[in-house]
Amino acid sequence: MSTTSYAGNRERIVGIAAELFARNGYHGTGVAELSKAAGLGRGALYHYIGSKETLLYEISKTQVDRMNAHAETLLGSGLETEDLLRGMAKGLLRNIAEHRSEWAVFFREYTALTGENRDRVVAARERYEGYWRQALDRGVADGVLRPVPRLLVKGILGMLNYTYLWFEPDGEVGTDELADAFLDALLDGIRQG
């Protein structure tokens, strides 16, 4: 089997697992159900996944890693504070809209991870929160934002993250428009007068 077909099959299995975990929960989805949905026997399934927790880890960490890379790029780009925050918000909402099942699994199920898997996911999530704090701190240092409580980052991310529950990407409001509306409301409240 070529590396390409292995990677493609593994990616397909991870996608199927994300959908099943999002719909039925991590603990509510058995290996037999995964195997059936993937059209593979148990042995073949384990060849691709290693373990059910490995799937949960990959689903949980992949999108957070993507958002960390996105934030790092934006933070290093020299954007003005407002453009930086808007870019971070738009990137997150686009990712959530494109990977809704994966985010549902992340938000609801990452606590089922154990040991180093859990530690790495929590560290990646905290790193992402830190990038938002850096962006806000930069705005304060530049004199365009007033100082805000450190917990505001969790509030901002809560506002954006939980769109996975209700946002319809094909609805009348697009991801960028929604991100701008959220950022307008936020920035009007913390912009330096």
Instruction: Average the pLDDT over all residues and give the rounded result.
Output: 94
What share of residues is helical?
over 70%
**What is the CATH class name?**
Mainly Alpha
Q: Give the distance, in angstroms, between the N- and C-terminal Cα atoms.
A: 63 Å
For this structure, the CATH topology is Tetracycline Repressor, domain 2
Outline: elongated
Q: Give the second-level CATH assignment, the architecture.
A: Orthogonal Bundle
The share of residues in extended strands comes to under 5%
Q: What does the radius of gyration come to?
A: 19 Å
**How many domains in all?**
1
Number of helices: 9
Q: Structural class, please? A: mainly alpha
Order of helices and strands: HHHHHHHHH
* Main sheet record: none
Number of separate strands: 0
What would you give as the CATH superfamily? Answer: Tetracycline Repressor, domain 2
Account of the protein in words:
With 193 residues, this protein is mostly helical. The protein has one domain: Tetracycline Repressor, domain 2 (Orthogonal Bundle). Helix content is 74%, strand content 0%. The longest helix is centred in the middle third of the chain and has 27 residues. The model has no long low-confidence stretch (mean pLDDT 94).
